[in-house]
Each structure stands twice: as C-alpha cells, then as structure tokens.
Fold:
Amino acid sequence: MKTISRQASSLLLLIGLLFGFFVMISYQVNRAKTANTVESAIQTVVSPAHRLISGLWIRVSSGWSDYVALTSQAAAADALQQRVTYLERRIMTLEETSRENSRLKELLNLQDRIKPHSIASQIIGRDMAHGYETFTVNRGSRDGVEIGSGVISTTGIVVGRVIQVSPWTAMVQLITNPRNAFGAKIVRTLAHGVVHGAGG
Structure:
C-alpha cells in the first residue's frame, strides 16, 4: 500500500513539473510574440519618420554641397573678371605708351623740319600787371613774325601764340592765360577734353 502511494506521489510530481514546464514555455512564447508585436508597431510608427529625416538630411547635404560649389564658382568668376579688367587696363596703357612714342617721334621729326623755318628769339620783357601771362620777344614783322603764330620752347613744347606784332617786337600770350583753351587727352582714361589756362 505504501509502494502504491509513493508511485502516485511521484507521478503527481512529474505531472506537476511537466505542467509547470509547459506553462513557462507558453509564457515565453506569448512574451516573444508580444515583444515582436510591440517592436513591429514601433517600427511601423518610426519608419516613416526615419525615412523623412533621412530624405531631409540628404537634401540638406546636397543643397549645402551645391551652395559650396556655387560659392567657389562665384569666387573664381570674380577673380577671373578682376584679372580680365587688369589685363584690359594694361593693354590700354601699353597702347597709349605706343601712341605716345609715335607722337614723340613725330615731334622730333617736326623739330627737325621746323628748325630751318623757325625764327629764334629772346624774351625782352614780361607783362607784370597780368601775372606774367604775356611776354615780349625781340623779333617782329620785319623778321617774318605774324599774329597767330605759335611759339615753342627750345625743347619743342608749345608755350603760347603771338597776339601782337610790331616791326621789331612781338607780344606772346602764354598758354596758361585764362583766355586760352586747347584740346587735350588724359592718358590714363583716354578721355578727351578742353583745357583752359588757369593763370600764373
């Protein structure tokens, strides 16, 4: 009788252990399913936001790269434009220098040509009342001097014109006289204009 009771107890214990084992397995399976369900739900909610953020980041990165590229291109274009402007000014300066050399050669040739036809003279008086705006030379009409004749220095620079003639003298008005005006050109800008005497 005791042997049967021990066997029954062992059987009940075994059944209890098996039941507990199956309960634990079922709990773990349900827990895993629940975890998978929660994880799936989280992924479902988070995935669109993740895709949106990723897309925005790609666009921002691409836009920044384009901005940097455009900024670099703009700086390069600005530097190139400055270089072109410098070269254009340099060319203008060289061209003007070449023209100036040509004018100097013509002036030298002019001096050689006018020497046989020029009339050498000396200054014998100045108009003190008008701030040295006129002076008198010791050559006149009997020497071939005429009103309106140009007067140049020994270096070929125009200094004035004859405004009055007598048989033995001539009065010369300086080019700096306020009543005088002559054409001129600014070498740096190549602008043409009229220069008036300022006196003195």
